[in-house]
Amino acid sequence: DFMQASWDVEEVQAKGIQHLASFVKDKSAFPYLLTCTEVITLAMKTHIDSLDLHVEGCTLLLEILSQALEQGVMMALDESVASCLLHTVRKHSENEEFLSRLCTSLMMVSASEVAAENLRKVGIIPDLLSILRRFLHNDEICLSCCAVLWSLAVSENNADQAVLASAVPVTSAVLQEHLQNGVVAESACSALWALALHGCLTDSDYEPTAALLLDALRMNPERTVLVKNGCLALASLVRLSETAALAILLHSKGSGIELIKDEYHLHFDEPGVAEALCLLMNEMVQYDEVMLNMRSQKMEKLLCEIKLQFPFS
Questions:
Q1: Is residue 94 situated within a structural domain?
Q2: Which residues form a coiled coil (predicted)?
Q3: Domain count along the chain
Q4: Helix crossing, 242-249 with 256-266: angle to 10°?
Q5: Do the domain assignments include residue 171?
Q6: Among 7, 145, 158, 201, which one is most buried in terms of CB atoms within 10 A?
Q7: Three-class DSSP labels, 125-140
Q8: Using CA atoms in the order 39, 45, 46, 47, what is the torsion angle rounded to 10 degrees?
Q9: What is the pLDDT of residues 66-87, one digit of tens each?
Q10: Helix (H) or strand (E) holding 97
């Protein structure tokens, strides 16, 4: 009430946010803090030129969102709050430290379908891509932005085909830059899977993207989610083009078939990985030349192993 009564007074908003932040460590205050997210974001929007207020507001939002995740509470963002966050992103588009915090907040809230839809409606995708291009070296920003892209791209109501298509080269650049960082690579692979599902890649993208995904699998073999989503992304590419299937067979760093075998044996007790691998193989055998190569590499043996391991799936 104190903050709402004096929207135009920056000091009131700053003091209000600071006072709310003092309750963060008190677990019993969490349900009440949840009701304050809109007040915080509107304070940030009203005082768009105040970096200090934005930093403190964003830090507080991050704390609230972190607790929400820990307690399994899904937070939705309405369109006005999403619009406010977009204005904040644009106002501080050069401030790397602040954007790192803000993008982490966006990643957390975008897990909600409602929030993802509202972020998409206000047109945040081009801004995310711009941030990624500018701060490609920053692993936190790359992780967060790719996770938000994934959430926006998997939305069933997506009408931003052209906008999403422009995300392909940027997401590929993130994966190339952070191949050895398993967490970021996992996020980028997931985003590429969503983009491939929407048919956002062009003919010239199939071969290099398939090769890049194989590199990610080869360099992060122990990461279950990366392996699963990387294989699902490859399956989507192979469904669209034989070129992608041939790129898997003829990868410069070794046969993709051998890599598939290795990944299965490493994750033989993970049904999600097995299912993704089977889906990939199912797409690959649609092409005669590829199927002959898979036979010569005794893929039947691997399929029998999977069938024995998961007889009731």
A1: no
A2: none
A3: 1
A4: 80
A5: yes
A6: 145
A7: HHHHHHHHHHCCCCHH
A8: 110
A9: 788 777 777 667 787 788 788 8
A10: helix 96-109
